Amino acid sequence: MKHFMYGFDQKNPRACARDLKERGIDAVVDGSFSPAAAQAILDEGMELYLCYVAHSLKKTEDSGLLCQSPEGKEKRWFSSACPNEASIAQRRLDAVLEAAEKIPSLTGIFVDGARFASFASPEGFDSFFTCFCSRCIEKMRKMGLDAESIRAAVKRLQDHALLPDDEKHLRQWLLFREACVKEYMERFARSVRQKNPAWQTGAFIFAPSLGAFVGQTINACSSLDVISPMLYRAYPYAHGPACLNHEWAAFYSLLGDTAEQIKRLSSIQLHQNKTTIPDALLKEGFTPQEVGQEAAAAAAAAQPDQFIAPIIQLEDALCQETAQCTLAAGTGGVGYFAYQDGILPPKK
Fold first, then answer.
1. Closest CA to 121 of 75, 86, 157
2. Which pLDDT score is estimated for 339?
3. Which helix (H) or strand (E) holds 111?
């Protein structure tokens, strides 16, 4: 997999498969494949990867499953349950494994949303200050963490009233998030390989500069075959979870005068000279070269046998330059994501 595409026109599978092949695409990732779509992709010599969302919630599954704020208020993020709600996580994993068995010649499975809430959650930026439900509190305690001190520190962070001793508790909070994501990724990888040892495991994760805040560090993904950091540099739509411009704009908007102190908690420090003005970050976004720095950080932190293939936005006048910077950073491949159907990568 050198170049992949997320999304596929299932209404016109033959034409779409030909168009993608002509543009140098050699793998397709999507949430489902009709038999006709799967066959069209295979006939063009491309690989298929199935993708699912780790903690997604249906409307009938809300009660008692959402994350909670430090005050105990339920918060929705990315239309998802608490990452430590085992029943939902297992239900989604079982469903994708069942679907995967029906797709001939499937190459692998990608997981999306295997994380905690970020700064730019569409349901509200304050979703970031979770999760302190009984599941998470109990898990913190089992890990030997001071759950009540962590909760109190996060509440003070939310109120922009940090105490001198809070930084160590916030660091524990982020390490807790990382440990939970790592545990999930290991369970995902193990389940996929038990079902079919030939299938590859992959994940769409946050950019390295943001990963520590949602638990998606490269270390947390060490059990996977493929890692695809989402490096959307200047996403033009109203909501942009995982997008560099939206997440960093929300970071500074949400954290205010505590932002620089919290930024130091990230395991990977990038973009030190970037503007901290939220509106400017949203509008200007990040340069292709800055995307390349994120890609290089991912490649440097990965395991020797892991394949790093960041995904970038296709609806971008600088898409080709961004792809070149990404590949030049030492990654094995690059993927393209289009918010709107029918947009194709440029011809090679």
1. 75
2. 65
3. strand 108-112
